[in-house]
Design goal:
heterodimer; A: alpha/beta; eight-stranded mixed β-sheet; four-stranded antiparallel β-sheet; 12 helices; 30% helix; globular; disordered C terminus; B: mainly beta; Immunoglobulin-like; five-stranded mixed β-sheet; three-stranded antiparallel β-sheet; 12 strands
């Protein structure tokens, strides 16, 4: 049984402007100890998905339909008390902005201890000892002294480490990391990611890593889901996603990664922006930006198709993409090429896809 | 040294964004960002309905086939006090093409079965924009382009009978072959 199974999750926000469908019919699963990446541009619905898992969607947002099965129990059917016992205990979240996530009027140590006292029934002294141990584990120097510091006395990287310590304090089974390194510089980013990976391996914690950085995903994750406009457009094991992307959006995302030594004058981008989630274009939501779009894409919304069986994907499908190409409704097909170049020798290795000139 | 006002950097003309000496005729109205006051709930419904004015406009009356049609929806509270209108669901207002809600033959969403209120501060105006893609949704995953001809874009607050409550407006446009 999967640790987490999400079935047909739909989350909408009822605003004066209109109804924002932030997550639309989303299904996926995460196994125990697995590292699962969720990627996509801003506004793709990644964070809303994570917040839904902890039932933290606030008004005017509503989880309209679907099931969130954690260890076989539907979180959406639980009472508020049951959900509170789950949050921070069995499911923890590392938020994007550590400074905002930490309470400025409590010491960092107290904030870590609180979760352990509440969920694990530790005494003050036990919680303090364990907090100092955790702070030390996440690389805070002089952890015992720093225990009594307030969040403003920590640097950005240290605050993020403190939030990670807090998230790991109750030894969760599932760790939701919502762009944990966005606000940090690259050296700290690497340290934090290594830390998450190391700690997840040590505690056998499943990780759902939300990011817009495909490099981070390649480094850490086992499987990836690419989201666009609230819907999953591709799901794949991480290596297959990089070597053989099936959706034009994934191809666009990967070709927009800047590379050292690239001779192009301008960085490659996906033209246009994410559509307004209040009014999505008809047909495939990505068609206005897709270089391979045809007339059929404007009138038919592609289902998420299991690439191996060519049937509609299920939560068990390991490889799936939502493009009309996989239901034979595109006349010209997807015309791109994946070239894998060895950084050291500059030679090409094992090209896979056909056509065009996307250097992924 | 030349002063900034001696140069040509500043122009005083009648352009919409140029500074002018003309005093504003009307006092600026309060921005519509806040919630309407609690007391707005106690305004009689008939009065609230009369206070709120709904209109829909398009930049042009004819559009070539296949070109998305933008339209602006305006709501205005003409009263110097807050009003709010109870709606059937959290979906506060809807638009339709020839009475087909959001140009879809299938129900696009199923709003929660609970009422809400569309609130306006004193003198508040709200403007929202939408685009009709010139297509009708036939099923959950298929659309059909609209044929040439005249279509009516209607907008109403989500109450039982927005037309008779005076909370509805419509505009007619024509789709033509280029």
């Amino acid at each position: 049984m999967a640790l987490l199974e999400i079935k047909d999750l739909t989350v909408r926000f009822y605003t004066q402007e209109g109804v924002v469908t932030a997550v639309d019919n989303l299904s996926y699963q995460i196994k125990r100890g697995e590292k699962f990446g969720v990627v996509g541009e801003s506004g793709a619905g990644k964070s809303v998905t994570a917040l839904s898992l902890m039932r933290l969607i606030d008004s005017p947002g509503r989880i309209e339909s679907g099931e969130i099965l954690f260890k076989g129990q539907n979180i959406l059917d639980m009472t508020e008390k049951e959900v509170r016992s789950l949050r921070g205990n069995e499911i923890s979240m590392i938020f994007q902005d550590a400074q905002t996530a930490l309470n400025p009027v409590y010491t960092v140590g107290e904030q870590i201890s609180e979760a352990m006292r509440h969920h694990l029934g530790y005494s003050n002294e036990e919680a303090r000892e364990r907090s100092i141990q955790l702070l030390d584990q996440v690389g805070i120097p002089e952890a015992e002294t720093r225990y009594s510091d307030y969040p403003h006395e920590f640097s950005g990287g240290m605050q993020q480490r403190a939030v990670i310590a807090m998230a790991l304090s109750c030894d969760p089974d599932l760790l939701l990391c919502d762009e944990p390194t966005t606000a940090l510089d690259v050296t700290i980013e690497t340290q934090i990611l290594d830390l998450i990976e190391e700690l997840a391996d040590e505690f056998d914690t499943a990780v759902q890593l939300i990011t817009h950085d495909l490099g981070v995903v390649a480094d850490i994750c086992d499987r990836v889901m690419v989201m666009y406009a609230g819907k999953p457009v591709e799901k794949a094991p991480v290596e297959e996603l990089y070597y053989d992307p099936k959706h034009p959006y994934t191809v666009g995302l990967m070709s927009s990664i800047p590379r050292v030594g690239d001779t192009r004058d301008r960085l490659q981008t996906i033209p246009g922006t994410m559509p307004d989630l209040v009014e999505l274009p008809p047909g495939c939501s990505f068609h206005p930006r897709c270089p391979f779009a045809e007339d059929a894409c404007t009138t038919t919304e592609p289902a998420l198709i299991d690439i191996e069986s060519s049937d509609e994907a299920t939560v068990d499908s390991s490889r799936a993409a939502a493009c009309l190409e996989y239901t034979d409704q595109l006349q010209n097909g997807l015309d791109y090429e994946v070239r894998v170049v060895d950084e050291n020798t500059g030679s090409e290795m094992n090209p896979t896809q056909t056509g065009g000139s996307q250097n992924v | 040294m030349r002063r900034i006002y001696e140069s040509d950097a500043l122009r005083r003309d009648d352009g919409p964004f140029s500074p002018t000496e003309v005093k504003r005729q009307k006092r600026p109205q309060r921005n519509g960002t806040g919630e309407p006051s609690f007391l707005s709930k106690f305004i009689p419904q008939a009065m609230a309905n009369k206070a709120v004015y709904v209109s829909v406009t398009t930049p042009r009356k004819t559009y070539p086939r296949g070109v998305p049609i933008p339209f602006s929806v305006h709501f205005k509270n003409s009263m110097p006090f807050s009003v709010s209108i109870p709606t059937k669901s959290p979906l506060l207002w809807t638009w339709n093409i020839d009475e087909i809600i959001e140009a879809s033959h299938v129900s696009v969403r199923d709003p929660p079965d609970e009422t809400d209120r569309f609130g306006f501060n004193r003198g508040e105006r709200k403007t929202f924009t939408r685009r009709w893609s010139q297509s009708f949704r036939l099923t959950d995953s298929t659309w059909e382009p609209a044929a040439t001809g005249r279509y009516t874009i209607g907008v109403g607050i989500n109450v039982d009978d927005p037309v008779s409550a005076g909370l509805y407006d419509e505009v007619t446009i024509e789709i033509v072959d280029e």
